[in-house]
Amino acid sequence: MLPKLTLAAACVLLWPTLAQAQPQTQAQTQSVVPGALLLTSPAQAIGQALQSSPVLRGAGFSRDATYADRLQAPLRPNPELNTSFESFGGMGGNGDSRGLRSLETTIGLSQRIELGGKRAARIGLADRGAEVAGFEFTAAQLDLARDVTVAMAAAEAATRSLAVERDRLRLAGETLRAARLRVDAGRDPLLQAERAEVTRATAEIAMERAEREAEIARGELAVLIGVPAVQLAARQPWFDDIGPAVPAPVPADPLQRLGANPDLARFEAAIAQQRANVTLQRSTAVPDVTLNGDVRHARDSRETSFVAGVSIPLPFSDRNQGGIARANAELLRAETEAQRGRAALVAELLATERRLVLAWRAAQSLRRDALPAAERAARSASAGFGEGKFSFLEVLDAQKALSDTQAQLVETTQEFHTRRAALERLRGEQPSGARR
Fold it and tell me: For position 174, what pLDDT does the model report?
């Protein structure tokens, strides 16, 4: 009679856990953090990050610096005030120049006149620099939106993985209790209970690791957004939404699919910037003319006279050869980097598109086929164990297969969101989560 009772008790312990072995909800896996920002969607997280992220503020300051160059570029050289005193404090002779009797005072202005189109060249270079900075700031915004989406997907995946590990630990604990009952009843050897104990201990270690990973993921998301702490809402339906299918790439030319990518536009702007720099360096080789106008007053004769002059540098040796050569080299470098950058962007686009399709197929296969099959196997093993159709090890294998499938589904869904965010960044689009 006792073996039958213990067997029944084991079935009672295992049946509810295996028949309904689903991960706990996020509300059960995450305690409330006072003062933390509660996030319900990537759109909310991205909106907050665009306001408070230090990364984006730094990119904004870099853009402002180029606007300051644009403010300075059109300004002309300032005039210079010149003054001189002559014929005073003489020594020897008849003493006519001693003291201040023969003092001559000269006051004048000097104005440098820029030639060779220097001012227009400076303005052109500053405009191109501001254009490059604008594309870099747009790229920084898209980078931040992508990184926040990826970080939030990682945080949600870590939370769901924690739920899977907690459920795995709960199942391992129930299995251990059932194994001990069977051992006490003499139905199984002691080895089965010891193996169940190892399984429970391993599940406990995995759960503790998952707890730390979830905390780390939320911390990284908070740093990225620029807030002290974040907390995910109990429901995150966007994470499960992977769409009915991955759209086919349109248009066929990969370079055209990168049309809105600010990095692609920045390459062209950088080339234009270096061309403007070549123009500026060539204009610098043209010497400027300095005009002088002075008023001279002689104290002894009480006469006032005017003096005018022109100063022109003679470019015998310095014709800014080094500056022009450097600017030409920088232009060639910008053209080479643009060519390499376009090829790298196309290669990254094609690889990301393929990986996105693979991630979507894996998630769909797990959700549509593997997970239902694992659930059916767990229920069948639980029922068959009570009827003596399956061994204890087969029940453990079914339990492990179900937990592993759940964890794999979380991982592949996270990969899908990561790949999609990367693809949308390459296309110059806001992440799909930001448009919800």
Answer: 82
